[in-house]
Specification:
The protein has 732 residues and is of the alpha/beta class. Among the domains are: 283 residues, Rossmann fold (3-Layer(aba) Sandwich), CATH 3.40.50; 193 residues, no CATH class. Helix content is 60%, strand content 7%. The protein has 32 helices and 11 strands. The strands form 3 sheets. A 7-stranded mixed sheet has the order 2-3-4-1-5-6-8, with helices on both faces. A two-stranded antiparallel sheet has the order 7-9. The protein has a two-stranded antiparallel sheet with strand order 10-11. A hairpin with a 3-residue loop joins strand 3 and strand 4. Helix 7 packs antiparallel against helix 10, helix 20 runs antiparallel to helix 22 and helix 27 runs antiparallel to helix 28.
Length: 732
């Protein structure tokens, strides 16, 4: 029996913004698939590369990194994927992509990869931009200095890719061509002693008695392991050895990290003249001229805010036709199926649970696709790196860095794509902290609720100064949610997600046109993953909500309304008869909802929500809003017998709310109750889609549960404070 030949593995590494993803897509075509690294939630791409002699090669896209040094579990993946530390399989070779316009900085990672004693090939990318940057690079001389093959390419245009494939094929067949041994070695006796001591503490399964590999891993350990790191695979023996050497060096007035980093850069700088020449340029490059505007605090912020305004306007207006098409399509399917199935519980389940549940998943797709399209374009053009630099100083005040700003701002449109956008952030701690505060931003789904409450309880005639109170309240809700989100980020960043402030490093690549196939592939992958992974959770919760609001049912209520409908036969006018039938239909739906499990839960919630100024009917509305915040309006319409097709502009529902009174004659809905209810909606994470996507991004239910609980408690306490303080000062 013939044994299957194992496909060779090629790890694709490089700094962020070097065109690595574009090259990956060029090499693998449409064969790429997204998966998770073993044991962690970080995704990676794998694809197949077909070579004439080596055959099928498995290409693994390693997360972008400036060096193999690591502090977090996600950063640790780079050394694991390249050096082949458990549980990741060791590659047969490493292709390192470097930005030719930022060559000397990119070569630091190349030196580290060469030190692991794996066959290495360097792709010198963006050579088409050297002329405009006033640079000349001799790829042959660079190859001689490094001792590994170097191929000049331009991944966006495809220049040099055939030569790169041939070089990879040759390297896999003759791996020693890319294994020159370490190019830099410590020359200081004290540093050599540190390396030897740490080498003895390395686990044997890490190096398998290979001297060169042991040396490289000892250097990695000295740069990465400290009391603040989040590394998971470091054994205690190694951690103790590194701590002892760091303490000894500090006592001697030495800094081990500085010695290693400066040593490698000194090696690069001393040899750079052999392969790199910079021409004196009388004209400033286009990138530099644009950066004078975009990185200027006085000019860059307005430009960025304008860009974000265009993005969000596109998310609203651009996605609206597609969202309307999705809603219309599912409405047509629902009506068609309802006409085909006999009346009864099966009809209601298929139409109101399954069809509406699938629709509630797909209705997010237009916004998700548009947001990731904008992010992909900003990343590929190089603008996203400038945004991160521009916002970094502001975001540091709350314990985050610049990359957190775009996802948080995206939360104004919808929390679902905004949470997915946190993938652009490298550190897990930063991603988690951002995810935990994005739901506090005022998303578009809250607007119908705000509109209903403000229009019903705050007449347009009320004016504060020269401005109507309705507009001021809407602006106040946006400001309130934003300030609360920033405060929560600061608190969580100093408690639950406490960690050292690491320097924010980002390469500023030259501006370039986006590679549209790569951008569109990313949009497709993210959209598909949302539907297949978060969509199932959303559908399940939709069915659960339908069950709570539909059962157990009451034969007595149904029989009573059947008698009343039968009595309508005596009404001669068809229009009057139809109107009365509609009133009976809405009234029956309201009574059945009150008798359902959801209605009973609403009654059970009343002691908990009464201190906020809410009655049990609002409790039922809050329960319905868990499916989606705007469902609060239709649920309240059913509760008050107005109908389930009401909107925030429904005069009937507004009048019902104004006319509702407690048994003692007090109005149920007062301006104070309205403000308390809006504050609750602003802070509580009732959206099942948001919780589902957090579950999908974190691969655990722990964080969605924490998010639901902490925002719920925050909403209750804030609403309680508003209502009780308002009553104490006589505000009604």
């Amino acid at each position: 029996m013939k044994t299957a030949v194992r496909a060779k593995r090629l790890a694709l590494a490089g700094n962020p913004n070097t065109g690595k993803t574009t090259l990956f897509n060029r090499l693998t075509g449409s064969q790429a698939k997204v998966g998770n690294y073993p044991g962690v939630t970080v995704e990676h791409q794998e694809g197949e590369l077909r070579l004439p002699r080596s055959g099928k090669v498995q290409v693994v896209d390693v997360p972008g990194t400036y060096s193999l040094s690591a502090r977090s579990a996600e950063e640790e993946l780079a050394i694991q994927a390249i050096a082949g530390l458990a549980p990741i399989e060791r590659p047969d070779a490493v292709l390192v992509v470097v930005d030719a316009t930022q060559l000397t900085r990119n070569l630091y990672l190349v030196l580290q990869v060469i030190e692991t004693d794996l066959p290495v090939i360097v792709a010198l990318n963006m050579i088409d931009m050297l002329e405009s940057r006033g640079l000349e690079i001799d790829a042959s001389a660079l190859s001689q200095v490094l001792g590994v093959p170097v191929v000049a390419i331009a991944s966006q245009s495809g220049v040099g890719l055939d030569a790169l494939r041939a070089a990879i094929d040759e390297l896999l067949l003759e791996p020693d061509r890319g294994r020159p041994g370490p190019r830099w070695l410590p020359s200081d006796p004290a540093l050599e002693s540190d390396v030897r001591a740490v080498t003895e503490a390395l686990p044997e399964e890490w190096h398998e008695s290979e001297p060169v590999r042991r040396h490289a891993l000892a250097l990695w350990a000295l740069l990465s392991i400290d009391e603040h790191d989040e590394l998971r695979s470091v054994p205690t023996k190694l951690r103790v050895a590194v701590a002892e050497r760091r303490a000894k060096a500090q006592a001697d007035g030495r800094d081990i990290e500085t010695e290693i980093i400066q040593g490698r850069y000194a090696w690069i700088d001393s040899r750079a003249p052999q392969f790199l020449r910079e021409r004196a340029m009388g004209v400033t490059s286009t990138t530099d001229r644009v950066d004078r505007v975009l990185l200027n605090p006085a000019l860059g912020f307005p430009v960025f805010l304008l860009a974000m305004a265009l993005v969000f306007q596109s998310l609203f207006s651009g996605a609206d036709p597609a969202i309307a098409a999705v809603e219309t399509s599912f409405g047509w399917v629902k009506d068609t199926v309802a006409g085909l199935l006999p009346d009864g519980i099966v009809n209601d389940f298929v139409c109101s649970a399954l069809i509406e549940g699938v629709g509630s998943v797909l209705v997010f797709l237009p916004q998700i696709a548009l947001l990731f399209l904008f992010i992909g374009v900003m990343e590929d053009t190089g603008y996203m790196a400038r945004v991160a630099v521009l916002m970094d100083r502001l975001m540091k005040m709350i314990g985050l860095h610049g990359r957190a700003f775009v996802p948080m701002l995206s939360g104004y449109a919808c929390a679902v794509p905004a949470i997915m956008a946190t993938r652009t952030m490298e550190r897990r701690r930063d991603r988690m902290l951002t995810m935990m505060v994005i739901p506090l931003m005022t998303c578009s789904a809250r607007l119908p609720v705000y509109t209903l409450i403000i229009a019903a309880l705050f007449p347009p005639a009320i004016v504060v100064g020269f401005l109507p109170v309705q507009g001021l309240l809407m602006v106040a809700m946006y400001l309130f949610s934003t300030i609360t989100a920033l405060i929560c980020a600061a608190v969580l960043g100093r408690t639950l997600f406490k960690g050292p402030n690491v320097p924010f490093l980002v390469e500023l690549p030259p501006y370039r046109m986006p590679h549209w196939p790569s951008v569109m592939r990313m949009v497709w992958q993210r959209s598909r993953m949302f539907v297949t992974q978060a969509g199932g959770v959303i559908l399940a919760i939709t069915c659960a909500m339908w069950f709570l609001l539909s059962f157990p049912g009451s034969p007595k209520i149904a029989a009573r309304f059947d008698l009343e409908r039968a009595a309508l036969v005596s009404v001669e006018d068809p229009t009057e008869r139809a109107d009365k039938a509609a009133v009976l239909e809405a009234a029956q739906a309201g009574e059945e909802l009150r008798a359902s499990f959801g209605g009973k839960i609403g009654h059970g919630m009343e002691p908990l929500i009464a201190p906020l100024g809410f009655d049990w009917k609002i409790g039922v509305g809050l329960l319905g809003a868990f499916a989606a915040r705007e469902v609060f309006i239709s649920t309240m319409g059913v509760v008050y017998g107005v109908g389930s097709d009401v909107t925030e502009d429904s005069t009937g529902l507004r009048e019902k709310l104004r006319a509702e009174h407690h048994p003692d004659g007090r109005a149920v809905y007062t301006p104070l109750v309205g403000i308390s209810l809006m504050v609750f909606f602003a802070l509580a994470c009732q959206c099942m889609s948001t919780l589902a996507v957090v579950r999908r991004e974190t691969h655990t239910w722990s964080w969605p549960v924490f998010l639901f609980v902490y925002t719920g408690l925050l909403a209750w306490v804030s609403s309680f404070a508003v209502y009780q303080i308002g009553r104490a000062i006589g505000f009604a």
